[in-house]
Amino acid sequence: MEREVERIVRDIKSLRIQGARNVARSAIEALIIQVQKSRAKTKPELYSELLEVGDALAGSRPTEPMMRNAISDAVRFTLMQIKTHPALDVNVLKRAIVKEAISYFDEMEGNQKKICDYGARLIPEGGIVVTHCHSSTVTGIFKRAKDMDREFSVIALETRPRYQGRVTAKELADHGIKATLAVDGAVNLVMKKADMCIVGADAITSMGDLINKVGTSTVAHIAREHDVSFYSSAELYKYDPLTLFGNRERIEERETAEVWEGAPRNVKVRNPAFDATASRYINGYVTEMGVLPPQSLWSIATQRLGLQIAGI
Ligand code: RUB
């Protein structure tokens, strides 16, 4: 594996690269680097290099189906080229893979623009919106709403232990949006005056449940308690197709030192990075296909991603 690719794997693991979209984007960048620098002389050699890099990337953050879906697309594309063009030269194949991977970035940008347009229309004029963690999709929506001259303010929850809420608050304030940071434990208190909640997504299951930064489910439950609408914004690439066959989304457990460095030996420390919010707490998913009810997301995502369901 190329050194630069190893560095990207490390950066994803350590959260230097953070957020599902950034992670997926960097994973594809890594595949492009590997293919461009590959010394593979044959197509099977190139294919096994791709599989090796794909496995290392996918294992770097287990709760990231957007990255997995993007890697699978690249691997599937390569396999199809090998099968359908047996005479294809390995260097021509390398260029074709790179071209295909670059087109994924354009698609991502187009999707993000649509999500920001749909999401911005949901932001209530003069309202207070609560968010959790840092999602580039959510901050994109807020910035779009601001650029449409909508007046609103955002409360970003701090998001222990890695404080991604600070990244959100600063990014929004730098864009001229009124931003307040509150500790996670204040969620009930701040929700009393809120008009809406919106968070990102790491994974969406076939049941329409949301997997996002730990603490998201608490935000959703408390929003329901106060009758505040709760949305998640996500590209359909975040749908995990394996959940349709009963697979549960794996929740990443991170280093306990992130929570308490040097904790007493007789204290057990847990550090789950994500949690699951049941679909009944979610008013809608803001996607590139519009604001979808959680129950219909799986079928629209299946069509959009061109997935085959065995037996149908
Ligand atoms: C980030 C997080 C974000 C989603 C969506 O967790 O939970 O809400 O990844 O982000 P972490 P985006 O900091 O552990 O990666 O909308 O940018 O894809």
Explain what the structure shows.
This protein is α/β, with parallel strands linked by helices and 312 residues long. It folds into two domains: 3-114, Up-down Bundle (Four Helix Bundle (Hemerythrin (Met), subunit A)); 122-310, Rossmann fold (3-Layer(aba) Sandwich), CATH 3.40.50.10470. It is 46% helix and 14% strand. It contains ten helices and ten strands. It has helices spanning 3-13, 20-37, 43-60, 65-84, 90-120, 136-147, 164-174, 187-191, 216-225, 297-304; strands spanning 127-132, 152-157, 178-182, 196-199, 203-204, 210-213, 229-233, 274-277, 284-287, 290-292. A seven-stranded mixed β-sheet has the order 3-2-1-4-7-9-10. A three-stranded antiparallel β-sheet has the order 5-6-8, covered by helices on one side. Helix 2 (20-37) runs parallel beside helix 4. The relative contact order is 0.12. The mean pLDDT is 95. Residues 15, 18-22, 133, 135-137, 164, 199-202, 212-213, 273 line the site of ribulose-1,5-diphosphate. The site of ribulose-1,5-diphosphate has 18 residues, from helix 2, helix 6 and strand 6.
